[in-house]
Protein: DNA-binding FadR family transcriptional regulator
Amino acid sequence: MSQNQQLYQYLYQTITSQIYNGTFIYGQEFPSQHEICLQYNVGITTVRKVMKILAEEGFIHTAQGQPSVVAYRISRENQAAFLVQSRDEIADAYQGLGLLMPVLYREGAKRCNASDLRYFEHILNSVSEQMELKEHYRLANAFFTEILRPLKNKLIIDLELDSENYLHVPYLSFPGVDNPFATTAVRTETWFKNAVYQIEQKQFDDFCDGASELYYASGQRVDSYLYALDKYTEGTPKKKEEFRWFRAKVHSELYARLAMTIVRRIIAGEFDNEPYLPSIPKLMEEYKITKNTARRVINLLNALGIARTIDKKGSVITLKGDIAFKSELNLMEPIIQERLSLFLDALQIVALTAHSCASSITFIPDNLGSSMEKRLRTASDSRMCPLSFQLLINAFIQLLPYHSLKNIFRQLDDLLIWGHYMQAIDKSFYPDFSNMAPAMDAVVAALKDQRSDALPDAFRNAFSLVYQNVCGVFSKYPINPTFLLCCFPDK
Structure:
């Protein structure tokens, strides 16, 4: 599936879900194409195609020169049932994002300049008693989106906008069911005033704590609301569909994600006793993919130095610690530059949020530490290689208790495969990696000792060192100036 097809599917699924849950109701004016572009962070071509499909399927009515109108009828009871079926997922998302996003807000706030602060003051001055409730939340969304822009990371903006759309729960009026989103101009103004003051005074940790409390309180109110709605949905059929709301995967095509899946299987030792990786016919059968997609998977593994295909025999693994990058590669090609940029964006998110997210870990399987230690023995002494990094992030994702976080970090991990392109950079540009081995060993020690309290610092230190080392390479080998902005966004 191409990136464009994935984006169409994402936008279509999001909008139809919001029609089913009552965000868009029958007879209501549908947002303009421009408004949809801004709200969902997608291009006009994607919006036009999705709106055409929505019109053909009867979800909206369009007329030349007139605003589109929602044309789909659904009872309030069915709207409530659609909302209630997602209660557990929404609660999980609030908890997971409550660990992830406030840290990113804090890091964005650290990099805000005078122009950003003036914009925040403008938002503050826009609050008035005459505002409709939706305007309160529109201003809040604008504030949080803008505070992330100094990080210059498009994946972070995707995270913010996708979470806003997924966590938007419309209020359905039923007897005894209070509006969880009710607020006043005074409350909104007070919150903004306090947040802007904390940023101006560089009280970044206090600002982060306030954002965390906001996520927690909102999650509690929404959960109580959905619990109250549930009694009005008895006898109403509930359709359950998995909705992977974060869309990092639209930046990575199917063949690349499958290649990353093969890498994970290699790291897990699945092929240790096999002479060859699965053949193209086996990949086609196992993953229900075309021959062309399977061939692209194998070609990518070869191009990245992970595998080597022997004519008329099969593909053998070359991932034994340090990769000997054999293929000719032009790092200046636009597609490779784009992929390296996504790699840096994904790695930055992992490095910034590892400590906060790891603080939620409470259970460590008995054999995880010893298993990781055994696999690390095949890595280089410095531990700075694809093998050791994949072991590290696999353990991190496995231990996270929230599905939303697993979903996000697994998709980020899919993009980290492009870091293998760095194998084409001459080793003379690489910094001293000697500090990586103790950092990796600290993670292993915490896992073996079942010390979940030691994991936040251990994971943060290890991922931060990886990110710093990668940025160190690009500072000496500047193939694209924007990479330095990603590594050092405050410069």
The first helix runs from residue 3 to 20. The chain has four domains: 3-74, 81-230, 249-317, 334-487.
